[in-house]
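In the current project phase, we have settled on a layout for protein records. A sample record is reproduced below.
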Amino acid sequence: MTTTRIALFTESHQLATLLEDVLRTKADLHRCALPLWELSNEAERARPDALVVDFSRTTPGGHAEDRLLEELQRQWPELPVVMLTGDDCPEPLARRTACSGLIHVCDRRPWESLLRAVERLCDPRHADASGGVGVGCPEFNFPLRVSEPPTESLGKLNSGHPTPATLGGIVGRFETNCPALTWMLQELDVAALHDVTVLLIGETGVGKTFLARLIHEVSPRSDEPFLHVACGALPGDLLESELFGHVRGAFTGAHADKDGKFVAAKGGTILLDEIDVLGLEQQVKLLRVIETGEFEPLGSNKTLTRRARLVVASNLDLQPLVNQGRFRADLFYRLNMMKFELPALRERPGDIPLLTRKLADRLSAQHGVTFSRIEEEFHAALQRYPWPGNVRELENVLRRAVIFCRDSVLRPELLPRQILAGEQPGIVGRVSNPSGRVGNPSYGSLGGQIETTEREIIRQALAGNNHSRTKTAKQLGISRVTLYNKLRKYGLA
């Protein structure tokens, strides 16, 4: 039987990787990451049986994409084409869908519908005698437009668990107004369906743990355990026992056999948080578990196989650690394939009112305090503040405001002084800058300026708390483990 040849046009590396994974035994996928105007020539060279075009990001008005589709359909009138767009599909593309045999996938969370459509292209029942895809087959029902999830069950994946569409998906549960973050969440919706290790990068408090739990909840593993391992909170000599388990007598104090997280998680999900703190020897063992799934409990010669899926998180970008020899390059390249970076809260100020309302509603119910409205100046003050502790710090500030709310209105005076002043913790005042220049040119790059500022904030916060690390971490809205890492990074330990 001839293998179906599918050409994929997309700028998304994650989408291409996941389609390759799904279609590995079903089709020959040829990815085209080319300028739009070269796609027709590439299709001529590839001679595919079907074409998948990702128009989630279109040119203004969608006219260029429409002209491309017109040319493709003119040259290959019987070539099946699957087109992916967002909800706001440009009018020319919507009109072409209505007048031609395009398969149009335009869900708010389109990934499961796209995967179904592409998999159907590879179904032998839809192939003609020459091995191509039969356009006229009534089972395929051209033209097809998937604009809403079907009312019946979308089917079951691995062990009969529901797909993300039946659960709301990550996009629907991680609320944001940031287009770049929405795009990333859509790609995570796809990754959640597959047994791939996901790497989440982001500052402390941006929501990595929450997002990891969402990945678990919308995945086929949702009925199994979700376990969170804070790598930085465990001494190096205990981390291996925590992950892999041990047998009786493996070390002093091992009075009985103990299952590690890889056994306890069964077929669920393990979040390895702050992976950047692992030593090189521990990284070697983790690499083996990721690549082969095999490990041995401490003190045992019995090799076990993990069933759990791994989500790995780090507060720091791992590439600089690789350059410094502090992180293994082979492990980095293995994790980097499915890397997702969460933007800091200060980079998406439009999300602050949305998060404020959601968190305030939850906190008011938790503490038995009611409020009827939030003043605009309250929102404005929150949006002026840079939030070094991100969403976690925002939640702590809102908790204080809700607890002290007395007249059912969240007003600016309920906020701490530094929030109203737009100052970061530990900074007692702002230096006027009439020139409008940011920072000192001698600091060098933007990254260097940010690190210099962060070091000074931590130094002043430590001094203001009599060098109490617990109080300093609480004031900065970060965990003690994160504070310890930063103290070592900046030579303040």
